[in-house]
Queue: 2 jobs
Job 1
Amino acid sequence: MAYPHLLSPFTIGDLTLRNRVVMGSMHTGLEDFFWDIPKMAEYVATRARGGVGLIITGGYSPTKRGWLKPFASEMSTRIQAERHRRITDAVHEAEGAIALQVLHAGRYGYTPMNQAPSNLKSPITPFRPSAMTTKQVDETATAFAKSAALAKRAGYDAVEIMGSEGYLINQFLAARTNDRRDQWGGSATKRMHFPVEIVRRTRELVGPDFPVIYRMSLLDLVEDGQSWEETVELALLVEQAGASLINTGIGWHEARVPTILTQVPRAAWTWTTERLRKEVSIPLCASNRINTPYVAEQILADGIADLVSMARPLLADPEFVNKAAQGRSDEINTCIACNQACLDHAFENKRSTCLVNPRACYETELVIRPLSKPKRVAIVGAGVAGLSAATSYAERGARVTLFEQGEQIGGQFRLAMQIPGKEEFAETLRYYQRQLELHQVEVKLNTSVSPADLMSYDEVVIATGVVPRIPDIPGIERAVPYSDVLSGKVVPGKRVAVIGAGGIGVDVSIWLTHTEETLDEWLAHWGVGDPAEHRGGLQPREPRKAAREVYLVQRKATPIGINLGKTSGWAHRDVLKQSGVTLITGAIYEDIDEYGLQITVNSEPHLIQADTVIVCAGQESVRGLYDQLLAQGYPAGQLKLIGGADVAAELDAKRAIRQGLETAIAAKDLA
Ligand code: NAP
Ligand code: SF4
């Protein structure tokens, strides 16, 4: 059997899971309003049909004051519990199991009503919390237990108590956020009283066999977080209080160490789970940056954990488990850990979805229906917009020909995967390559097409992408576009000036300065140390050695990188800083000559001495073929323009892939 450990059953309390794959909790936005329950039911049922062992919902607050944001998800009344029947029934029909996560946001609550152990504001939310009274703490511990009991009533198979990622329970545990002097604070052991009471009271209400999962932070990665000794003490206490399983988490949301981004090496944190396993008797679940069945299997085979939690990988591919079990791992749409459509959306108050799978959380809306008669469709351009369109049309039963003038599929995405920390992007192209084969798309590489070649098709989709914008600067012919550098056509010198500091300028600067690093070096660069020696797992950072001296320049006076992703931009900006990249804003480009790049900043002339000047000044659409087809009378209703060829400005893969899918879904049947 493929993945024998991962696919073997596992029993927790009175629940036997069909395999060891846990879909970890992730707030999608579908939890917040009862009218989204049908969408939520289909979202989880799709994953249950896909073979997931246990699904854990996004967090539900036990009280109003624990909301993540105004009117966010809550489980505190019988009416709410009854509404959840539709969700639990849908999962059970698919022979899956589902747990409800109980989460109190504490000072992370994006509401003026938020409360916390002490009135200390978090660095990532604008609202200062009010300090809970002794009675309120006691009532909140009981509210957690009642919420768990309601979950049981709603048909959930288990509950998870959220004690990680910096939410209320963490805020009680750490001295940095708890300066109380009553029985809920004072010493490390007294700070543990709150989670221990929650687990004890939950166990009392749900009975002896109902699985109670405790999600626990093994590394806080913040100043004055828990020490390792305290972490072990807490684990033993929650075990004694009645927890059935510990699901391990890493880092508070306010931590300034990336824990799940693409640049984090796969399974980078499992050493913490392995260490805790030696201390406790209840089973443990490993999590964070585990995105393939192979990595998950290895964790279990090596005895690091009993179960493996993956959230984003199951957003990316609901069929992950079935594909792994059927020897079809090469068909898995792998999560590339970009955060762009999942966590970024959650933090921007939008419904989560997935960059590589736009149907995630839109299962009832983006439905692929077969065409009544197979039509012939030509797609021109095999970047991700074209690939998404080609595979989606083919899934509907169209006979698709995909034309690409280059040697390989992938377009801008193939360039992006050269960036350190974006290597996972190669998985998306592997996925599309396999889908093209499976759906028998005819792929014609190294093929430039003319309008005459396309006239006979029933539908034509132009996805011809973009070319780098070449700005009008004297001496620009001495500069090179980023595409030539990332494709290996031009090898830059040791001192480099980069024109344009958008997403690509930042990426190219990271690429230019990067040197290979091991996992230990990566941890040291981010200041992660042994939690047994360094409280919270933080120690002074080791400097990074930069491969080149880089100057990153833009015309705007605004800080560089402010438009990067909400949950990833800070990490990219940090890498630029660690690598000593000089950031120059408010520049006027004067000339590029044999000495380098001449600019004016604040009316002062400057020379950036550079061996190479790289242009990252955005892109322009390539749409000549589209215009020609229209001019030659190809019916406008059958001609579609998508991706960068449609709109180059602020194009990203998220929009391109979704547009490809939507275009195919909107295609009409042949008359
Ligand atoms: P971009 O984000 O639009 O940035 C273009 C940069 O070029 C800007 O800094 C702009 O700044 C400058 N520029 C524009 N016109 C110029 C001109 N005529 N002369 C000189 N400079 C000019 O485009 P991009 O960097 O090519 O990225 C393309 C897309 O991919 C974007 O949507 C981006 O968000 C996405 N992407 C995102 C990431 C990420 O989130 N990590 C990474 C890569 C790409 P000034 O006008 O101030 O000079
Ligand atoms: Fe993974 Fe990116 Fe999809 Fe989120 S949006 S699930 S990080 S691929």
Job 2
Amino acid sequence: MEERLSEAARLMAVRRRVAVLTGAGISVESGIPDFRSRGGLWERFDPAEYATIQAFRADPAKVWKMLAEMEAVLDAARPNPAHEALARLEQAGVVTGVITQNIDGLHQAAGSRKVVEFHGSHRTLSCLACGARISRNEARQRGHPPACGCGALLKPDVVFFGEPIPEGALREAYRVAASCRVMLVVGTSAEVAPANQMPWVAKQAGAAVIEVNLAPTHLTESVTDVFLEGKAGRVLQDLADRTMALVETRD
Ligand code: APR
């Protein structure tokens, strides 16, 4: 592991222009369960019944049973050392952007400025009936589950299965991935397209791919150059320390 950490830090310090793709695994140490690990959200809520736009349209009150559980966890969550390490690397000019599949806003809370929210965010909610959009704080005043003034139940502005990725986010994610020299992939099973295409876009553009996860994924044997096994908090802090030390000696 020592050798691989040094190799990853060297790649990041020398090549710079590091784009990051994050998944639910980076927020597990903030108390937010991921989706597909044991005890994950999809173990308790079948995504076919709770996470598709068809399910929401058919029975929004039922989907709000899952959303309410997520809201409580999201409200209590704070950035962890993994989010903080990425913000530090952005401030040092090493990280050029974070493409996140997460809707928790923890990258921005940790200080990252260049964040692409590929699956939207839970900060605002929209009405599928009349198109109104309100903030989460305002929605809280509307009772539970939150209803629009027109009477329909509001939907968080997160991407459900069956919905398109927001146009701007899709374009910006491809731009960031196609212009990076290193892609750091953290805490994702890479099961869901098109987010899981980003490491391939980066690779085709000549980037090296570094993957941080508790266990290998299907990326590990195909597109990953350096696999760092372990919890994102500890690995990213260590990787950031080593990268910054090399950057300081080079500058
Ligand atoms: N440190 C590093 N990796 C971790 C940690 C941790 N502390 N905890 C879990 N992981 C890893 C798991 O091993 C797994 O590979 O994070 C990954 C989480 O995978 P998923 O639960 O599938 O989450 P994600 O990849 O983000 O899912 C993508 O699927 O359901 C949709 O919209 C949802 O954005 C989500 C998308």
